[in-house]
Amino acid sequence: MERAVLLRSISGTTSRVCTRLFSSKVCNFTAKRHRSVLNTRRRSLLLQHLRLISTSPSSVHLNRPFCPLAPRAIATSAPQFSPDVSDAPEKLGFEKVSEEFIEECKSKAVLYKHKKTGAEVMSVSNDDENKVFGVVFRTPPKDSTGIPHILEHSVLCGSRKYPLKEPFVELLKGSLNTFLNAFTYPDRTCYPVASTNAKDFYNLVDVYLDAVFFPKCVEDFQTFQQEGWHYELNDPSEDITYKGVVFNEMKGVYSQPDNILGRSSQQAVFPDNTYGVDSGGDPLVIPKLTFDEFKEFHRKFYHPSNARIWFYGDDDPIERLRILSEYLDMFDASSAASESIIKPQKLFTKPVRIIEKYPAAEGGELKKKHMVCLNWLISDKPLDLETELALGFLDHLLLGTPASPLRKILLESSLGEAIVGGGVEDELLQPQFSIGLKGVSEEDIQKVEDLVMDTLKSLAETGFDTEAVEASMNTIEFSLRENNTGSFPRGLALMLRSMGKWIYDMDPFEPLKYQKPLMALKARIAEEGSKAVFAPLIEKFILNNPHRVTIEMQPDPEKASRDEADEKEILDKLKASMTEADLAELTRATQELRLKQETPDTPEALKSVPSLSLEDIPKKPIEIPIEIGDINGVKVLRHDLFTNDVLYSEVVFDMSSLKQELLPLVPLFCQSLMEMGTKDMDFVQLNQLIGRKTGGISVYPFTSSVRGKVDPCSHIIVRGKAMSGRTEDMFNLINRIIQDVQFTDQKRFKQFVSQSKARMENRLRGGGHGIASARMGAKLNVAGWISEQMGGVSYLEFLQSLEEKIDNNWDEISSSLEEIRKCLFSKEGCLINLTADGENLTKSEKYVAGFLDSLPKSSLATSESWNARLPLTSEAIVIPTQVNYVGKAANLYETGYEFKGSAYVISKHISNTWLWDRVRVSGGAYGGFCNFDTHSGIFSFLSYRDPNLLKTLDVYDGTGDFLRELEMDNDALTKAIIGTIGDVDSYQLPDAKGYSSLTRYLLGIKEEERQKRREEILSTRLSDFKEFAEVIDAVKDKGVVVAVASPDDVENANKERPDFFEIKKAL
Ligand SMILES: [Zn+2]
C-alpha cells in the first residue's frame, strides 16, 4: 500500500529540492517513496510543534503530495461561483487570460497577466480556509556554484520594508502560518506561504513579495558570506576555514551516498542543459562564486517578467491583485522570461556508463557496498497528459508496493540490500525513469543490470495481473478522492502540480484536471487490456530507448579524508600567499561578520514585521469531537468529522506485556505482518487485495512517556482507511493480517533485515540528529530506551547480529515472531479509534463488533516491566561524514520542575533566536534547535549538519545565561506567544484530527489540561524565561551528550577534553 508515489504524472512535485527550513510539517509530509501511505507519526505530540529538519534537504523531500486534487474533504458543499464580470482586475493593471471552473478541486481558477511586466498570476478561489500564496521564478543555473540555492537563503535575510536580519525567522516566531518555507529546484525557486487567518496571510504575502523583489542581500556582501561561503580566520595563528550555511548544508548532502547517486544520475542524464549542473551547489565549486555573479543572477531572474504567482483559498480575489499590483507596477518588462527558458536535452544515440566514488567508512566492510542505477531520459520533449498519466500508473504497477513485480524481483534477487532510483520522475522539463540497487557486490553489478532489463522485457511480453492493475487503479482513485496531503496545505500541493507545466510555458490548468484522462485511461484498459496500454510504453520509453545511463558507485574509504585534505591544501596555500596585513584584515572581517550576526535587530526594525495581536488569537484550543463508547467490552473512540465518505480507523493493542528481549524484533514483526502472506494467500495476493479494497493498511509501534507515570505508554497501532462501503472488507483484512499471517518465509525475512539495515545506515548519515536524540532518550528514560531498541544505534546493532542468526537459527526467530503475536493481539487491552461522519460511524459498528469477536479473549503474556536504560556516558557515534550532529539532553522533571505552558514559548524562542543565531548563523551549521518532550521531561538540544562539535556544546551550555540576560519588549513577547499558538493550532485534515485525539487519549491529556496550557502560553511573561534559566541549567550541569560525528572531529575533541567522548563506530 505504498502509494505515496501516486500519480506522479499529475502530482508533479519536487525532487532534488533544497528546502530552506525544515518544519516538522515538511518532515511529516516527506513520505518516502516506498513507504506506507499511512503516516506513522510516533511518539510525543510535541514533535509536531518542533521545527525539525527534513531528512534529506537536497534530494527528494516533498515526495509526491498524496493526491492533492480530489473534491475537498472539508467542504460539505461547493460554493457557487459566478463568472467574474467586475472590471477591478483591469483597473489594477491585469488582463484576464482565461478562466475555468475546476471540478476536481471545486475551484474557480483565473489566469491573469500583469500588463506592464508580463507577470502571470493564477488566482484560485474556493472555500478552503487554508490559504496559500506562492511566487516562483525560473532560475536555471549555468554552473554548480549554487547561486539559486544561496539566493533562496539570502533573499529572506532582510528587505526594503523589513530591514532586519531575518524577517523569515520573525515570521516563524510570530505568525500563525500553516506553511512557511522556500525550495530550490534544479530550474526554479519557489517561495510559498500559507495561513488560515486572513490578516496573517496577507502579512506573510507582503513579507515574501518584498523579500524576493527588494532584498537587502544584493547590496550586502556579508549576507552573501553568511549564507553562501566565506573564509574564516579567528586568529592569524590558526588555519583558515570555509564557512557558510549553504556550503555546510551541501557538504552534508555530498556526504550521503544516496544523494551523490541521485545527483550523478541527473547530471549524466542531462549533460547538455541546466540539469547537468547542481543548483544546490557543489562544495568544491561554491567558493568560486563571486558576489557580482550573485547580484546579477538576482537582477536578471527575480523579476516580474520571469515570475509565476499563485493564490489559493477563500479570501477575496480582488484583494490579491491589489497587493500584487503595488509590487509589480514598480517594474518594467524585461527579457528575463526568454533568457530563463529551459532547453531540452537531446536524446543519446547510445547508452552511457559512469563510475563514481562515494565516501565509505575506513576499515568497514566494503565488499557488498556498491550501488548501481539505470537511468533513462524518457523523451526529448514534454509528454501529453494522458501519456504522463499512463506512465504514472505504470510506475505504480512496477514499483509502487512491495508486491509490485520490478521491486519484488529486485529485492528477492539477494543481489542487493535496497532499491535506489525513484522510478518515473516527471517534475523537470523531460521525464526520466531510474531504478537500481544498493548494497551490491562488485561482481554482481552486471547481474543487477541484466535483471532489470530482463524483468522489464518479460513484463512487456506478458503484461500485468488483472488483480495488480485493479489494485493500482483503486489505490490511485482512492487517493485522488481522499485528497490527503497530510500537513501540507492542499493549495500548495495543487500549486506545485500546476507549476510542473506552467513553469515551462504550458497550460497551468491542465495538470489540475485529472478526471477525464483518468476515465479515458480506465476505459482503454478495460477495452484493450492492460498489456496493450503498458507494453508499448515499456518498449518505447525504456527497452528500446538508447538514452540510458548506468551509474556505478564504488565505496572509497579514503574519499572523505582525501576531500578534507584537498580542501585544507587549498586553504593552506591561500594562507601561505597572504601577507601579515592580509591575515589581520581577514581576522578583522571574520570578527566583524560575527559581531553583525550576534547583534540583535533593533526594536524598530523588529516592529517593521507585521504581526497579529493577542486579541486575534482564539482563547480556546481547537476542539476535536470525541465520543467514548464501548463495543463488546472494548473502548471505542469516535470522531464525528466530515471525511468525504472515507472511514479512518486505528486498532490499538497494548505492547507492555512483551518480553524486553523481543522489543527489537517489533519493527520486523510489523513488516512481516504486511509482507509475508497468510496460509491461503501469498503476500502479493494479500497486498493486491488490500490495494483493491482499501486505501491502505499499516502496522507500527507507538511509544511515549506519560507525564506523572513511571511506566511508558507503548502500543502497536494497526491503521487502516477505506471508503465507508468497504468497512467490512477493511476489518476482515486487518483480522487476516494480525491472525493469519505465517511467519515462515525465511528468505523474505532476511530481505527485511537487509532493507532495514540499509535504511538505518542511511538515517545515520542523513539524519544523525534523530539518531543522537534517540540515543540520549535511551540513556534518560524507559520510553526512550524502547524507541532506541526499535530505531536507533542499538537497533542497527541488533540487525547486524540478526543477519547471521537467520541462517543458523531461523526456527527460534520464527517462534519469537509468533510469541509477539500471541502477546499483543487480544481483545483485552485493545482500543479502537474511528474517524468519519456520524452516519458512517454508526454503520461501521457491526463490523467493528464482528472484528472484536474474532480476536482472542486475552493474551498469553503476563505483565513485563522494562526498566532498561543505556549508561549515562557521553558518546560519539563515528561515521564517515564531513559534518556532525551534536546533541545534549537532560530530564527537567528530575530537577523538580513542574511543567507549564510557557515552556513551549520559551523553547521555541530558544530555537529561533539563541540556537538559530549561534549554531546556524555564526556557527555555520544547517540547523540547530531544541525540543522539550513534555511527556518525559527530556529537554534536548540538537544540531544538524554542523561543522563544529565542542563549540556547539558551549552554545548549548550558554542557554541559561542567554535567558537570564534576555531583554524582550512586549511586541517580541507577543510574537513569541502567537508563534507558539500557531504551532499548537497547526492545521489538520480530519484523519490527523482523529489521530491527535487518539494520542491525547493514550497519553491521558484532557481538554481541561489543554485549556490550562493554552492560558499559560497566552499569559507567558518575561519572568517565566528567567525562571526557566535556572531549570535549563540542568542540561549544562547534568546533561548527557551524544554526537554523530566524523572521526577527525571526535579525535580532536578528545584531545581538547581528554576522554570526553566514549567512541562507538557505527558504520
Ligand atoms: Zn538550503
Automatic annotation (TrEMBL):
Q: Which GO terms describe its molecular function?
A: metal ion binding; metalloendopeptidase activity
- Entry annotated with the keyword Kinase: no
What is the organism field in this record? Daucus carota subsp. sativus (Carrot)
Q: Looking at the UniProt record for this protein, which Gene Ontology cellular component terms does it annotate, in alphabetical order?
A: chloroplast; mitochondrion
**Mind telling me which residue stretches traverse the membrane in this protein?**
none
Q: Which Pfam families match?
A: M16C_assoc, Peptidase_M16, Peptidase_M16_C, PreP_C
Q: Which GO terms describe its biological process?
A: protein processing
Q: Write out the entry's keywords from A to Z.
A: Hydrolase, Metal-binding, Metalloprotease, Mitochondrion, Protease, Zinc
Lineage, top-rank taxon, reads Eukaryota
Instruction: Spell out the family assignment given in the record's similarity comment.
Output: Belongs to the peptidase M16 family. PreP subfamily.
Residue ranges constituting the Peptidase M16C associated domain according to the UniProt record: 553-802
Cofactor(s) recorded for this entry are:
Zn(2+)
Protein name as catalogued: Peptidase M16C associated domain-containing protein
Q: Where in the cell is it found?
A: Mitochondrion
